[in-house]
Amino acid sequence: MDANLALKVIKPLHEVIAGHPFPNEPKLRAYYGLPMTESMLIQAERTLGVKLPTSYVEFLKVINGGFLWGDCFHFGDIELAFSCLHGIGYEQGIDAELGSGYMIEEWGYPSPAVWIGGDGHTAVMLDYRVPPQNGEVPVIWVDTEDDGQSIQIAASFGEFIRVINQQTG
Predict the structure, then answer these.
(1) Which of 27, 51, 100, 134 is geometrically suited to a Cys-Cys bond with 94, CB 3.0 to 4.6 A?
(2) 3 closest CA partner among 81, 45, 68, 63
């Protein structure tokens, strides 16, 4: 993944704090992980029980989660509201105690999949219900208030980020 593309979709922490009505820096900082290491990746994949998609791993090498520049995105005719993508190896990470495993169990999301963002009622997920192709899995949107149906919104995480970038960059 192009490093510039990853940096164009995630808002730097100092920008989030400066624009936040309650700039509680420790709480906001919790959504940004430390730079990803190989040991963090190995541990996260062990915890999640999957090999993370190549494009997602490349994204995490550049920026390990954080708030997006926008909070509403269009994927075809579908308008989706979410504001954060989670990384690995930190309190708000997908591999944390209240990360993907917890969100799937708590909200009844499809499985096998990995939750990477959303507020509970809705989720952005990496879909492992079909075998990975060339190291990639589709990205789906799940809305629990719409009978929990999932909709594929991108063929890969890389495509997902390109769509977001077109709407924020």
Answers:
(1) 100
(2) 63
Domains and CATH numbers, the chain: 3-168 (3.40.1580.10)
Per DSSP, helices labelled H in 11-149 are 13-19, 25-29, 38-48, 54-62, 100-107
Whether the per-residue pLDDT at 1 is higher than 90: the answer is no
Task: State the helix-helix crossing angle for 100-107 and 38-48, rounded to 10 degrees.
Answer: 20
pTM over 0.90: yes
CA-angle at 33, arms to 28 and 5, nearest 5° = 95
- Return d(Cα 75, Cα 52) in angstroms, integer: 22
pLDDT digits (tens, 9 = 90+) for 104-141: 999 999 999 999 999 999 999 999 999 999 999 999 99
